[in-house]
Automatic annotation (TrEMBL), chains A, B:
Keywords: Repressor, Stress response, Transcription, Transcription regulation. Negative regulator of class I heat shock genes (grpE-dnaK-dnaJ and groELS operons). Prevents heat-shock induction of these operons. It comes from Methylomonas aurea. The lineage of its organism: Bacteria, Pseudomonadati, Pseudomonadota, Gammaproteobacteria, Methylococcales. This is Heat-inducible transcription repressor HrcA. Coiled coil: none annotated.
DNA sequence: GTTAGCACTCCACACTGCCGAGTGCCAACA
DNA sequence: TGTTGGCACTCGGCAGTGTGGAGTGCTAAC
């Protein structure tokens, strides 16, 4: 985006301190206050002139005549993109994070929960972690258990150590031994392959095996098809939503309800987070940029996380637009890396 | 509790209509309004006399001098215990409920979620369902999968068709075959027994087997001990929390935050719900009766649900004290029965 | 025991005046 | 030409005020 170009150093510095100041106290900041900045040796009047320019460019705006100025979304954007001085984590903090995310005792699912909680605890905002994309993870083990005559419980484990289960229905009634055989077959053929790949193979196998002599294999592949049927990735772990209730900018009950509703509906949020899968680092949505009206007064700072060098999910922090980006950004970045590391197969 | 005794029919009827009225409009109800009740042929002045009595007994109370009266907790309690005319569900409604809870395609976990959602959707309040108590359910199948050298993923399925998994650590390193054998042994010995029973047996077996020749069995039992180690039942499925944000009596943000915090902490709520396990039908906590200050302005209507004639969990509805008890009570009752039925092994 | 009447209390709401903060504009200055 | 002080102006927030309505408690009469 242009915008930055037309501005001289001074205006930019002014914008920067204005935004920082506003993030700090949450009050519209006026010319008098800014004139006290030691690096900005200007009278309030001059500052007002600069501010008028900034306002004309849509970077800041006055809630009403006699209030100070507040950054607009574009203002925040410019700030975040070019003005921000991120402060990397102290190594002590980093060690602490690493310690809390690197535990041998836990399943992947627990780990995701922990990461989410960590995000919210540290930032005092809401933390979110999407479950690893099912397509990218690979199969480690599959198992069939008969429940009732034609209902079969499928349990499968991925290389991220997540355990999935679902009930499938079959026309034919299978014995425990037959199911065992089917599982053995699938385990021998598909272990280590990604679920997406398996779906491909299954379709091909069905073509090929149609006239095969081995009915057991056909059955097995049929069951695999049911088990791995495409399912939208529509889940995430959210923590610390309640932290959001403390922010005055979100204190409108109607709005807040809509936001929390969006959290429990999930699909909107997931859609938003999916957009961050491609980004190769921290990605930020400020206010209405997200395109979802419920996030109008929120910002979302995300980073993708990877297992085996492949991006499988996204984590992030949701909070009011007025948040301490300079701390949140490096923190989200690091957390994503640590989570990825913790999830890597040992 | 006494209280009802000292009151004549008329006062009770007056209390009843007052509570009904208040539940309906949420406004303090005054003598004028009550005098219009066709069954209560009294002038406002007389009604005021009766109300003064009721107030003296702590059943109703005036928010301020010139407002009408509002039921107190004791007032609600008397109303719910002796005055309420519950309205049983229409059979059409019942069929509909049955339909939504009786599905073959789902795992138990999905079913609990569905029940919770049902509770919240129908009542427009929050629905909660505790997971079946692990102790009472019995084992259907257990399985060990090696993850890394000494980390083993244990997967076990209960007769409620719930799939549990956890990571255990062992000193010794086991081969896949050894793990398979251990699982086979445990499955043959323990299938169909309750987890509590299994824990008992495991301890005894360890005593007995200490000098056994068969190391494999010892290992198996050891692993079983790790897998079934006592864990507090501390989980439930909550739905429709956001519905609570619409109620004016809960619209204080500070309070609401505390309530939602309690929901995510879980243990307080679980403790409360556990108290309802013994009750042999619908149990109600009104306002501060629960003993938890976060529920000061809430009521909780619960009913235990059973599998195989044994109570394994509790479900209920959380809403403002001012709720339509006459509808909620039978609905919660029926839902508990339907959920129990749906969970019964087929 | 029931009722009408009456004085009283209190909330809700609208209106007022006032203060402080911050602005935009202009004229003077370097 | 850019910077500055001065000044009139605007607006939100707050405290104080007055009014109307709702509902009460009390008392005296039925």
């Amino acid at each position: 985006m242009a915008g930055g170009q037309d501005l001289n150093e001074r205006s930019l510095y002014l914008l920067k301190t204005l935004v920082e100041r506003y993030i700090q106290d949450g009050q519209p900041v006026g010319s008098r206050l800014l004139s006290k900045d030691p690096n900005l040796k200007l009278s309030p009047a001059s500052i007002r002139n600069v501010m008028a320019d900034l306002e004309e460019m849509g970077l800041i705006h006055s809630p009403h005549t006699s209030a100070g100025r507040v950054p607009t979304v574009s203002g925040y954007r410019l700030f975040v993109d070019s003005l921000l001085t991120v402060r990397p984590l102290a190594s002590a903090e980093l060690d602490q994070l690493q310690a809390s995310l690197h535990s041998q005792t836990e399943t992947a699912t627990d780990l995701l929960g922990k990461a989410s909680k960590l995000l919210s605890d540290v930032t005092k905002m809401a933390g979110v972690v999407t479950l690893p994309r099912r397509d990218s993870v690979s199969l480690r083990h599959i198992e069939f258990l008969p429940m009732s005559s034609t209902r079969i419980l499928v349990i499968f484990v991925t290389d991220t150590e997540e355990v999935h289960n679902k009930i499938i229905h079959t026309e034919k009634q299978f014995s425990t031994a037959e199911l065992q055989q089917a599982a053995n077959y699938l385990n021998s053929v598909f272990t280590g392959r990604s679920l997406a790949k398996i779906r491909d193979l299954v379709v091909k196998d069905l073509e090929k095996d149609r006239h095969s002599v081995n009915q057991g294999m056909i059955d097995a592949v049929n069951m695999a098809q049911l088990a791995f049927a495409q399912q939208p990735d529509d889940d995430y772990v959210l923590s610390g939503e309640t932290n959001l209730m403390g922010f005055s900018e979100l204190s409108d009950m109607e709005r807040l309800k809509q936001l929390f509703d969006a959290f429990s509906q999930k699909h909107g949020v997931i859609h938003l987070l999916d957009q961050c899968l491609q980004a190769d680092g921290v990605q930020i949505f400020i206010g209405e940029e997200s395109g979802y009206s419920v996030f109008e007064r929120c910002s979302l700072v995300t980073a993708p996380y990877s297992v085996n060098d492949e991006v499988v999910g996204v984590l992030g922090v949701i909070g009011p637009t007025r948040m301490a980006y300079e701390k949140v950004i490096p923190f989200v970045d690091v957390t994503a890396k640590l989570l990825g590391a913790a999830l890597n197969p040992k």
